Amino acid sequence: MRLSNYFLPVLKETPSEAQIASHRLMLRAGMIRQAAAGIYSWLPLGFKVLRRIENIVHEEQQRAGHVPLLMPTLQSADLWRESGRYDDYGEEMLRIRDRHKRDLLYGPTNEELITDIFRSAVGSYKDLPLTLYHIQWKFRDEIRPRFGVMRGREFLMKDGYNFDLTKEDALHAYNRHLVSYLRTYERMGLKAIPMRADGGPIGGDYTHEFLVLAETGESEVFYDSEITDLTFGDREIDYTDVGQCQAVLEEFTSRYARTDETHDEAVFAEVPEERRRTARGIEVGQIFYFGTKYSEPMGATVVTAGGERVPVHMGSHGIGVSRLVGALIEANHDERGIIWPEGVTPFHVGIVNLKQGDEATDAACEALYKGLQALGLDPLYDDRSERAGAKFATMDLIGLPWRITVGPRGLKNGVVELTSRRTGESEEMSPEDAIVKVNGIYAGL
Ligand code: ATP
Ligand code: MG
Fold it and tell me: N or C: which end of the chain has fewer CB within 10 A?
């Protein structure tokens, strides 16, 4: 993309309504614009990051064997009356009435709708196990929407639902989700720690939240510092292998790590004092096993091999896709702006032309731009007639992890400069080598 053709409405001033870094930076970098309280338009740069996060979530869900579909945002109130949640959910649910006076609601989550889909089509144990998921907008009429996309009213969530014959099978689905979530967050360059949590209105005996440690997080968390050393890495995992998934769950949940709802001082005290940590965290996902809570009242049953009709065991599993954009920035920024991890960056590399209009410099930039694109990379070329300082400031603000700076002086010696946004270190090399180097950085991501 050429910046002269793009829509990047960066702000010079720090918006006064934004209290935390990610909200400020998303507004300043022209990623979002508030449409109403807790409701945002995703401008081109923000939309790109959102899509990249969504893609990683899709890839990792499908790698785990989960099947994508798409349910609507509006749901019939009748389904929620069946489960008993229409009245229970309270003020957070946005209720709507259509012209025929039928009650609808903007879905805050989808347990009822997916259970209805399941019961209409599945009747035999032979169709199990099954996990269906979608990535769709949700609405929760939060009393205090704040921190930009972190606590919005309309937000994008991946929600998945497993259907299994037995509790044992459903717990394997739970473990599978835990493993796939570990992989998902790591691919984004994020450390999200599974912590024992509370069921809340969805209910459930087994549940973990995934938290990103950050001072601005809304949850208070307590953990054994050893847990922050764990990484899933690039180990191979067979998602159908019950033992393997169980072993990963045990590895990542055996140390003390809990949110304030489940925190237990007495158990925490058993952690050696030098490893006890109290901190704040951003919830970026949650997994639940809740058994037959919805399948029983809604009649989602299957016939077993023995001919008996039984309600299926279920769980639901969510990732805060739009909140992740904010969480990623909270974890990756400095005083100059955002620093995107390579896994989610909106553009792979920025090209800064130091002397727009100079024939040799323009030609070198064009060659770089086309050369990078030819390798499937997505560069952002700042081809505006701006001062170098302004171009650098924009690149630093929007946080592309790599920048290639091209100017007449370097070109005389046949070199351009490749700079890392994270370390600030620069290296001179030929334009061809810069292309090879950038390509190498993204290979395998
Ligand atoms: P919270 O405790 O933060 O209100 P929750 O536990 O009610 O969240 P879940 O039902 O577990 O949320 O939803 C799954 C994920 O969706 C959460 O882990 C979070 O990342 C995201 N999410 C929930 N509420 C919001 C919101 N208002 N704005 C943005 N993301 C949200
Ligand atoms: Mg939650």
Answer: C
* Rounded alpha-carbon distances, angstroms, from residue 229 to 191, 212, 233, 236: 10, 14, 12, 19
Distance 84 CA to ligand 2 centre (A): 20
Among candidates 319, 328, 108, which has minimal Cα distance to 216? 328
Question: Does residue 123 carry a pLDDT above 60?
Answer: yes
* Residues 351 and 330 placed together within one structural domain of the fold: no
Q: What is the CATH number of the domain that holds 315?
A: 3.30.930.10
- Please tell me whether residues 175 and 310 are part of one structural domain: yes
Radius of gyration of the chain (CA): 24
Residue nearest to atom 1 of ligand 1 (CA): 283
- pLDDT class of 199 with cuts at 50, 70, 90: confident
The answer, yes or no, to whether residue 204 has pLDDT greater than 60, is no
Residue 11 CA, distance from chain mean position:
25
pTM of the model: 0.96
How far is residue 62's CA from residue 65's CA, in Å, rounded to a whole number? 5
Q: Whose CA is nearest to atom 28 of ligand 1?
A: 151
Closest ligand 1 atom number to CA of residue 150:
29
Average of per-residue pLDDT across 270-279: 97
Query: Which among 137, 117, 121, 133 is positioned nearest to 74, based on CA atoms?
Result: 137
Candidate of 53, 157, 184 to mutate for ligand 1, largest count of ligand atoms within 8 Å of Cβ: 157
Q: What percent of the chain has pLDDT over 70?
A: 99
Q: What is the pLDDT of residues 23-32, one digit of tens each?
A: 999 999 999 9
Residue 342 forms part of a structural domain: no
Distance 14 CA to ligand 1 centre (A): 27
Q: Does one domain contain both 353 and 321?
A: no
CA distances from 10 to 113, 244, 355, 400 (A): 40, 47, 22, 15
